[in-house]
Design a protein that fits this description.
The complex is a heterodimer of chains A (330) and B (340). Chain A is an alpha/beta fold. Chain A is 32% helix and 24% strand. In chain A, a hairpin with a 5-residue loop joins strand 1 and strand 2. In chain A, helix 4 runs parallel beside helix 6. The mean pLDDT of chain A is 91. Chain B is α/β, with parallel strands linked by helices. In chain B, 33% of the residues lie in helices and 23% in strands. Chain B has an eight-stranded mixed beta sheet, with helices on both faces. In chain B, strands 2-1-4-5 form a four-stranded antiparallel beta sheet, covered by helices on one side. In chain B, helix 4 packs across helix 5 and helix 7 runs parallel beside helix 8. Chain B is globular, with a radius of gyration of 21 Å. The relative contact order of chain B is 0.14. The N terminus of chain B is likely disordered. Classes of the chains: A alpha/beta (330), B alpha/beta (340).
Chain lengths: 330, 340
Amino acid sequence: MGAQPLMRIENLVKHFHVRLGAFGERAATVHALDDVNFEILEGETLSLVGESGCGKSTTGFTLLNLHKATGGKVIYQGRNIVELDEKAMRPYRRQLQIVFQDPYSTLNPRMTIGEAVGEPILFHKLATKAELPQKISELLADVGLPPRFASRYPHELSGGQRQRVAIARALACQPKFIVCDEAISALDVSVQAQIINLLLDLQQKYGLTYLFIAHDLAVVRHISDRVGVMYLGRLAELATREELFEHPLHPYTKALLSAVPEADPAHERSRKRQILQGDVPSPLSPPSGCRFHTRCPIAMEVCGKVVPEWREARPGHMVACHAVTEGLPG
Amino acid sequence: MMANDIRPEASRERLLDVKGLTIEIETRRGPATIVDGIDLHVDKGETLGIVGESGCGKSLTMLSLMRLLPNKIRVTQGEANFAGRDLQKMSNSDLRKVRGGEVGFIFQDPMTSLNPVMRIGQQLAEPLIYHRGMSKAEARNRAGELLKLVGIPGAVERLDAYPHELSGGMRQRVMIAIGLACNPQLLIADEPTTALDVTIQAQIVDLVKELRDKLGMSVVWITHDLALIAGLVDRINVLYAGTVVEDAPVDALFANPRHPYTQGLLASIPKLSDQRTTRLSSIGGTPPEPGRRPKGCPFAPRCPLVEQICHERVPSLEGTGKAGAHRVACFVAQRKLEAA
């Protein structure tokens, strides 16, 4: 690949301050993201996986400056975009788009599909009013919908068609980068495959970069160039798809992969799953040291005390685990 | 049709036998068929997987058996025999004894299925007191045992917890415990892991498998995820637009899917060996809406193998293979098998 970084995320932190108790008398902090470091390369699909509440969606929101970061930097085109205010952010907004899980609630039910797709074009002055109908037809064609859909309303469309519209709306801005936040999770298998193919086609056609947030590892394995595994607000491991799926290093990644069912009855019946005990601890008071140590099958004494360093275990293969680090030469 | 279904284990006893079940929804344009004359059965000790996409009628079929259909949706035809009795003809009070007693349910979303203002222990005790006539103290004891059975740590202390104090995976375990409370002969699990993370999903699948073997009950597992149930079920029924399009033992279905819809479903699951650039095969179009069902085979408008006859007549579920255990509702597949 040898691609240039499109975005560099440095020590990104996001804490949410919440109030607990029946009358909100107790203040608490949700450690949604702590000290997250990675790069997104131009033209790649980088996926983030992990259990719910691990901070994968928060990462997507925070690096688009939709949540204000508590600390750290997101460097895009030489600027730290998380410190920009809304107005200074506007030129970047056009280039950085997001597609959500639920196209039912992201499309305005009172706007026709044409209006929904046309709105960002007019806002960013990417076409004149006269050119607009033509532009809308082209965008709908890009996502595999006939031009007559422009006059329809969201409720007349199926879930898969609505997700196509949401993608067309993101494309309307001529973006460089799209965060797909569980964008295919709500769709049926056969429709999901259509949308995955569509995303791959559009990436080739427009040279898009994706941050793909998903919990379905089979899908992630299919579409990603690189995959990052998150646990309780921290990155546990990040590597190319082949490395991560064939040579996972972090015990959490191994457990996650062993939980994925395969469409093969004989294999499924005989397989020995390494099942994680218990649930993810609360991000209100994450465990000390390595956050995974409370569920880790190979936890050592040091794991409960010291946060493992985020380091390169193999070329391009990042991991944060004391056990892996100790096994390393040097 | 049924005559072909002579299974090798002829001694197997039917626990549930549904014939010609038809369910309609009341719409502004009049009644529309959602489930179209479904035949299905579950043997004693058997685990059946019912697979299909949203709106195919998989949940409604099972809900209808227990008279749990929402308003404006009703059964218009068909019979359902459970352990020798017709569920459709049973009085409401008799059915109430079956529901939650001989037949246990686990639903998809434990947050909405559990009562938020009732302690876990009370919710578990309720069916025991109602169906088993236990005293409050006995029921509480048994409730503690049930929580232990489904692997909830600190089971007895958890009896006094409210649902919101538990995680999603724990709540689903409580749902399973309620479903199992009265030692049901049949457990119906309706997408019980859909809202859960893969790691928790794997825990729940393994738990149901273990409990099934321990308690010797039959299970119907409804899902849209073929891979999930591959290692769990004995037999799979694939539903499309309110009809069973294929009925086969699990190994035969994965190794040799015969209906073009099943083939499409299996092909659209991403595989380990795929290259990143491989296009997933997908099924074009979307399932028909209720009230707009095509005249012939419901899959015909999306089918890659469609022929003239498919638009004209509805194929019936015919047995193929040695003992007729692999059944498919497709003119093209049936002809191919006859020729072979």
